């Protein structure tokens, strides 16, 4: 069981908008910033969103992050086949004194 | 260009030890916290340990506390993870990652290619 809860799977067709949720608690998402990572098959993770809603340089603006209370979301608009990957949310947990990850969401582009 | 290259992985018996290293280049190593994150075969990401830029603050996941030790040599731009009393469940790809800030956890913006650690008899 992961400390942060994500749906195990999500899907969409090219051009659609997809949203992935990340549910936590007051000790992690509710009090610290959330980051999102994309992991393409057989590759290292890549930072997609940091500080809840900031994109590192080079990340397309099709990707956006938001947070409200103890929940965060990653939205992908204009879905493309190359977006097919696993997506993970993460945040620092003040009680565990550790970074915690969600279980990951496998995004399929139909 | 930021580069992180892990080394030291391999096959080890349960109860054994391994020392992972991560050679960093392309940024001022001492200015950034670093992390180790692992991924068991077919599973999700799990944070293992983190260390501040100076090395003065270290953090561990509960499942490695007391067994693993993170350290860094800023003069050599190298991060280490000493892993003792290894268990079968420690089998995973271990990633070295550069964090966004000097101190505190704000995420990791660069990752190494990962190195496989297999714990098996």
User: Care to count the β-strands of chain A?
Assistant: 9
Element order, helices and strands of chain B? EEEEEEEEEEE
Ends apart, CA distance between termini of chain A = 28 Å
The H/E string of chain A reads EEEEEEEEE
Class based on secondary structure composition and strand pairing of chain B = mainly beta
Mean pLDDT figure of chain B: 97
Helical percentage of chain A: under 10%
- Helix content percent band of chain B: under 10%
N-end to C-end Cα span of chain B: 40 Å
Number of H- or I-type helical stretches of chain A: 0
Report the C-alpha radius of gyration of chain A, rounded. 13 Å
The whole-number mean of residue pLDDT values of chain A reads 97
Q: What does the main sheet of chain B amount to?
A: 7 strands, mixed
Sheet/helix structural class of chain A: mainly beta
Shape call of chain B: globular
Largest sheet of chain A: 6 strands, mixed
Multimerization status? heterodimer
Which percent band covers the strand fraction of chain A? over 45%
Please specify the SSE layout and strand pairing.
The complex is a heterodimer of chains A (110) and B (121).
Chain A: E1 9-12, E2 18-23, E3 34-39, E4 46-49, E5 63-68, E6 71-76, E7 85-93, E8 98-101, E9 105-109
Parallel strand pairs in A: 1-9
Antiparallel strand pairs in A: 2-6, 3-4, 3-7, 5-6, 7-8, 7-9
Chain B: E1 3-7, E2 10-12, E3 18-25, E4 34-39, E5 45-51, E6 58-60, E7 68-73, E8 78-83, E9 92-99, E10 108-111, E11 115-119
Parallel strand pairs in B: 2-11
Antiparallel strand pairs in B: 1-3, 3-8, 4-5, 4-9, 5-6, 7-8, 9-10, 9-11
């Amino acid at each position: 069981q992961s400390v942060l809860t994500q749906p195990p799977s999500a899907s969409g067709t090219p051009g659609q908008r997809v949203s992935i949720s990340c549910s936590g608690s007051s000790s992690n998402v509710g009090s610290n910033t959330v980051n999102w990572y994309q992991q393409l098959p057989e590759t290292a993770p890549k930072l997609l969103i940091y500080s809840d809603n900031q994109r590192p340089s080079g990340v397309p603006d099709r990707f956006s992050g938001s947070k409200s209370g103890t929940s965060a979301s990653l939205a992908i608009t204009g879905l493309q086949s190359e977006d097919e990957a696993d997506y993970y949310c993460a945040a620092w947990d003040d009680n565990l004194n550790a970074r915690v990850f969600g279980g990951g969401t496998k995004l399929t582009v139909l | 260009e930021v580069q992180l290259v892990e080394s030291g992985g391999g096959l080890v018996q349960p109860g054994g030890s391994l020392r992972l290293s991560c050679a960093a280049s392309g940024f001022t190593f001492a200015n950034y916290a670093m992390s180790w994150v692992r991924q068991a075969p077919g599973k999700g990401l799990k944070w293992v340990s983190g260390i501040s830029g100076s090395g003065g603050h270290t953090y561990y996941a509960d499942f490695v506390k007391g067994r693993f030790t993170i350290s860094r040599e800023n003069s050599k731009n190298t991060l280490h993870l000493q892993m003792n009393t290894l268990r079968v469940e420690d089998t995973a790809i271990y990633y070295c990652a550069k964090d966004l800030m000097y101190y505190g956890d704000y995420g990791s913006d660069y990752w190494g290619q990962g190195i496989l650690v297999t714990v098996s008899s």
